[in-house]
Design brief:
The chain has about 200 residues and is an alpha/beta fold. Helices cover about 50% and strands about 15% of the residues. Strands 2-1-3-4-5 form a five-stranded mixed beta sheet, with helices on both faces. Strand 4 and strand 5 form a beta hairpin. Helix 4 crosses helix 5. The termini are far apart. About 20% of the residues are buried.
C-alpha cells in the first residue's frame, strides 16, 4: 500500500476523568498506524460523550474530513467507540465506501482495506437488513387480528384511546346555560365531543 496513505484516528470516552482515558485508545492506534506505515492526518477525540448521542462534535468533524477527501481511511479502537447502533454503523460504512474511504476497527479485527474486511462489511449489511425485516414482521404480527378489526392480536385497541365522556354532566351544564365552548373547557374535551354527547 502507498506509504502516503492518510488516516484519521477516532476515539471516544463517555466520562471525563482517570476512569476513562482516550490516550490508551490513541496509543494503540498510533502504534498500529506506525507498523502499517500510514500517515496520521488528524486525531479526533470526543470526551464525556455518550455513544448514543446523535451529535458528537469530533465525530462530525471527522465525517466532514472524509467527505472533503482529506483522509484515505478512518481508524477506530472498537466499533462501540464509533457507532451508535448497527444501523448507524452500516450507514457510515456505506458512506465511506461511496467516498472511497477505508475503515479499520482495531480491536474488532475489521479492516476494510482487505478482501476479508470487505466481506465482513457485506455480512454486517445483511445483518442490518435482517434486523429491519424482523422489526417489520413483529409490527405486522402485532397489528394483525382478523377476528376483531381495530384491535391488535393481543387484544389492544389500535389508535387513540377513547375519551370517556360524562354525558349527564354535559347535559346538566347545558341546562345551566353554559355555551358549548365553556362546557368543553370545563370537561376537558373538544367542542365536537360535547356536540356528539348532546346529540346522543
Amino acid at each position: 500500500m502507498d506509504r502516503t496513505f492518510r488516516i484519521a484516528l477516532y476515539a471516544r470516552v463517555s466520562t471525563v476523568g482517570k476512569q476513562q482515558d482516550p490516550e490508551m485508545q490513541l496509543r494503540e492506534m498510533r502504534e498500529y498506524a506506525s507498523r502499517r506505515g500510514w500517515i496520521i492526518v488528524q486525531e479526533y477525540v470526543d470526551r464525556g460523550v455518550s455513544g448514543t448521542k446523535e451529535k458528537r462534535p469530533q465525530l462530525d468533524a471527522m465525517m466532514l474530513a472524509t467527505k472533503q477527501r482529506r483522509v484515505d481511511a478512518v481508524l477506530v479502537w472498537k466499533l462501540d467507540r464509533f457507532a451508535r447502533s448497527l444501523k448507524h454503523l452500516v450507514n457510515a460504512l456505506a458512506e465511506f465506501d461511496a467516498l472511497g474511504v477505508s475503515f479499520i476497527s482495531l480491536r474488532d479485527n475489521l479492516d476494510l482495506t482487505t478482501p476479508s474486511g470487505r466481506l465482513m462489511f457485506q455480512i454486517i449489511g445483511a445483518m442490518a437488513e435482517f434486523e429491519r425485516s424482523l422489526i417489520v414482521e413483529r409490527v405486522k404480527a402485532g397489528l394483525h387480528n382478523p377476528d376483531r378489526p381495530g384491535f391488535s392480536s393481543k387484544g389492544n385497541r389500535l389508535g387513540r384511546p377513547r375519551v370517556i365522556v360524562p354525558q349527564a354532566k354535559i347535559e346538566r351544564l347545558k341546562l345551566e346555560g353554559l355555551s358549548l365552548r365553556a362546557i368543553a373547557k370545563q370537561i376537558g374535551v373538544s367542542k365536537t365531543t360535547v356536540v356528539r354527547a348532546l346529540a346522543a
